[in-house]
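As a warm-up, study this chain.
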Amino acid sequence: MGVVPARVDIGNTDEIRHRLTRDGAVVLTGLDTTSDALVAAAATVLGPRLRQLHPLRQRTSQDGKSVHLHADSFDVVVDVGGVQHRRRDPDEDYVAIQCVQPPTSGGESFVADAYRFVDDCTTADPELREFLTQADVDLYGGWGALRGLPATPRVSRHVEYTRTGRRIVRRTDGAAPLHRDPDAEHIQTMLGRFQKAVHDLEGALPRFELAEGDILFLDNYRCWHGREPHTGDRSVRIVTLRSSDAR
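Now compare it with the structure written out below.
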């Protein structure tokens, strides 16, 4: 279920869209290392389907630890001059990550097809599949103390569908049982089981490197991504997106 995204020049729009649809991920090449490149890439890949582009984030780490498989999502609403603005959305359906500065060594990326993970659970672990598709959780309850995170719990299942039929497979370390849920103990146990299954999967996934300027463009409903630890400074820019067929 590992994905090695094809490397496609930004000028080949048809091939980019074909690969993204087929594999859930693609690496865009031939781009400048600028914040404008992420915005241009989003418009190029999604075209008229692009509905919302959240604020760009730049992350720099020195001798960084590994990042486990995850899907990007968050729920942050801020007040700017008396007007509420959504800076992150639980239903971001695409994410673009540009390599600004590769590390001295390490930092290889890896991507998993979450659809296949869930489908494989049908025979490999039916109880886990039932949990992922049937149990409600507080999607960000584990991060409840973070400033800016709404106080109202975000109730969700790990596997859901949009009204247009797109499947969503969520993966976040912030999930927690609902407050006073009578099944809280079981749900906490299954969250741990889910995390272990995902962490066990990581070792078998193929690794790939991002060169300076490369953009990893992901279907955030379908693919989870992570990276290896690294030495030296590593810097990336990230933008999360919503398309017209997001939930």
